[in-house]
Amino acid sequence: MKRHRPTLFPVNVWPPLVDAMTLVLATFALIAVIAALAEHALVGRLRDKERELDRLREEKARVERRLRALAPAGSFEIEEGKVILQGEVLFASGSDEVRPESRAFLGEMARALGALLAAEPEQLVLIGGHTDNVPIQNARFDSNWELSAARAVSVSRVLVAAGLPPDRVAAAGFGDNHPRAPNHDEAARRRNRRIEVLLVPARSVSSR
Predict the structure, then answer these.
(1) What is the mean pLDDT of residues 155-180?
(2) What are the residues whose beta carbons fall under 8 Å from the beta carbon of 98, sequence distance 6 or more?
(3) Which one of 22, 132, 160, 201 has the largest count of C-beta atoms within 10 Å of its C-beta?
(4) Vertex 89, ends 87 and 91: CA angle to 5°?
């Protein structure tokens, strides 16, 4: 009687091993597909961001062109999309009352800004008041910050009285915290005493 030699594996292990290898390969394939989809989604988001940045650049350039069109014969400056009016043109020293001779000019500016706002429904006008670093010395204002805020409000009131919708105008005072030039001499300080008028997205200052 012929004796059978014992085998190393009493059962056939190849089918389970093949199944396990197939499962591992399928898992790797699934991971690769998920990674490819994630990469595609990321590329799509980056492209969307690039398009949004391009749109914002175009919008900024368009707004700046319209602001430049408002400037008659160098009566004020345009710098980085902002209309800049010197404080001495609008106010007496230490005062927040707009000079009578400047009201007509602001009225003309309001009409031009009104047309600009009509063309830019997502924007509003921000009036920013700025001072030099010389401490104010009068009974009405305790600091340059308060003077700058009062001046911004005064200009805003003139613009609204001239026809700008009040819900499209905002005022802010910055004191001497954002100078255009170091306050080393009178010429530099004069540059820093100013009102800035610029268009900003309404959503940046409003919850609407």
Answers:
(1) 95
(2) 90, 91, 106, 154, 155, 158
(3) 132
(4) 60
Q: Which stretch of 7-11, 111-115, 196-200 has the lowest confidence by average pLDDT? A: 7-11
Q: What is the DSSP code string of 102-132?
A: HHHHHHHHHHHHHHHHHH-TTEEEEEEEE--
Are the C-beta atoms of residues 98 and 154 closer than 8 Å to each other?
yes
Environment class of residue 147 by beta-carbon count within 10 Å: exposed (0-12), middle (13-18) or buried (19+)?
buried
Angstrom CA distances, 5 to 1, 8, 33, 154, stand at 13, 10, 48, 107
Asked whether the beta carbons of 106 and 89 are under 8 A apart, the reply is no
* Three-class secondary structure of residue 18 per DSSP: helix
Tell me which residue of 94, 70, 73 sits closest to 83, measured CA to CA.
Answer: 70
Is-contact 175 193, C-beta < 8 A?
no
pLDDT single digits (tens) 73-99: 556 787 877 889 989 889 999 999 999
More confident residue, 12 or 152: 152
Q: Three-state SS for 47? A: helix
Q: What is the pLDDT of residue 45?
A: 77
- The 3-state DSSP class for residue 5 equals coil
